[in-house]
Amino acid sequence: MRIEILGSAAGGGFPQWNCNCRNCRSLRAGTLRAKSRSQTQVAVSDSGRPWFLLNASPDLRMQIERAPVLQPGDGVRDSPISGVLITSADIDQIAGLLSLRELQPFRIYCTQSLQRILRKDNSAFGMLNRVPRQVCWTNVVPGERFPLLDVEGRESGISCEVFSLADRYPLYVSPERVAELNGEEALLGMILTGSSGMRLAYLPAVPKISDELLCLLETTDLLLFDGTFWSDDELIRVQGSGATAREMGHVPVSGPDGSLQLLAGVRRPRKIFVHVNNTNPMLDESGPEYRQVRAAGWKVAEDGWQLNL
Length: 309
Ligand SMILES: [Zn+2]
What we know:
The protein is of the alpha/beta class. The protein has a domain at 41-189: Metallo-beta-lactamase, Chain A, CATH 3.60.15. 19% of the residues lie in helices and 25% in strands. The strands form two sheets. The chain has a seven-stranded mixed sheet with strand order 6-5-4-3-2-1-14. The protein has a seven-stranded mixed sheet with strand order 7-8-9-10-11-12-13. The relative contact order is 0.16. It binds zinc ion. Zinc ion (ZN) is lined by residues 15-16, 19, 21, 23-24, 278-279.
């Protein structure tokens, strides 16, 4: 399986347009040893075509233009992108779908709850189904395994299993709608298995780490994991107020109950942090936090990385 990391930052990107935190300010000034990053976006393919997007970031159009493998081949209208898998209704995971509305057929794999939010409550997404045979919506169910298909319905060599990570829907979803939805479908993690049998775990948002999750991750070969915040009170320290990392649905990287510590015993997969917020001190490659992450065997994803499984 080929994996392209097209974007590696959390919502807002790095630097974030309205942010003057130490990281963003120093990156703009050219005094920080760090890479700028677009919002997290990953693409996978078993054999080079077709490709599947894992979520659809607000930076998707630019990310496709930076990745030659995702650009049109032959024909006036063409794309090697056959499908998009969506893990939650967060704007950072769905906004890019609106950049794919140019009448190109592809599949969207998501839960029934997510489909109701997008198609019943947010009419702009109707542009994905303006003509017959445009976007084909495919329901996914936590706990079930399904093959990723190309636009014609042929198997791509990749199969996917999704599992529930939380029951909280984004704030923009009305309480009336939330009351009708299945809580299990609010936030998914996914494991993708290629034709070689190698397994990729994709979890850009993890609100809590259970023993069951640790066992599951030990069955994978590559882990792309929530690296949003270094510490639980990171945003409060930067802004003077706000929510904790855990309140926002992200286990912090550091601390006795952080992901570095809790995943220390997970030995099989290569471990890479994605979805890194611009305030996270581990973005500074000359800092102690970055050294600590690298010493623990993790890497911090950068835009443009290409991985093979
Ligand atoms: Zn910032």
